[in-house]
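User: what does the whole thing look like in 3D?
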Amino acid sequence: DAKTTQPPSMDCAEGRAANLPCNHSTISGNEYVYWYRQIHSQGPQYIIHGLKNNETNEMASLIITEDRKSSTLILPHATLRDTAVYYCIEKNYGGSQGNLIFGKGTKLSVKP
Amino acid sequence: NAGVTQTPKFQVLKTGQSMTLQCAQDMNHEYMSWYRQDPGMGLRLIHYSVGAGITDQGEVPNGYNVSRSTTEDFPLRLLSAAPSQTSVYFCASRATGLAYEQYFGPGTRLTVT
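Assistant: Here's the predicted 3D structure for the full assembly of 225 residues, as structure tokens:
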């Protein structure tokens, strides 16, 4: 079972920042937090990952709390194309069993 | 690169029929896996492979077989289809060590009547 918890749905106005929270209170010291998204009917797409420090790439920013029990994915200027289900996942880095365990995620609806 | 490809895109089977879902990747990835996704649910891992000749079970392996004879291909076999196997199936691959960036195929939508 997925060890992360996320709100089932969120709305965001187009052009505004979308902040998607995730709780991972049982995360261990060597587990990374990963974010993927799934646009309707497509395969999931990698967004970003992090261990302790905040991370930023061309798609999003990831803010991880100091105790690592929660994180927030930030889409700085959401567009209608960002409407998707967003998955927050804990997983050990590397190794032979690099399996992603998906929960139900957060359905983000970006509205005009 | 084509990335991860899956065939067919859609399939309808009758209960008891068998079929193979095809998955191929051209990125020379060692790790490949199969997931199923039921309506309103997240993805559940069926089987995975860490390299040619090596496969292992995920969380929902019953009713499915896999083999990995080449790095590129990882077919999923349904030996005797059941209505409970109606789902969308996704194949994924990643390079060993780059655990975070997993590439997914477009999916196969299977209906078993």
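In plain terms: The CA atoms of residues 43 and 96 of chain A lie 22 Å apart. Chain A has a mean pLDDT of 89.
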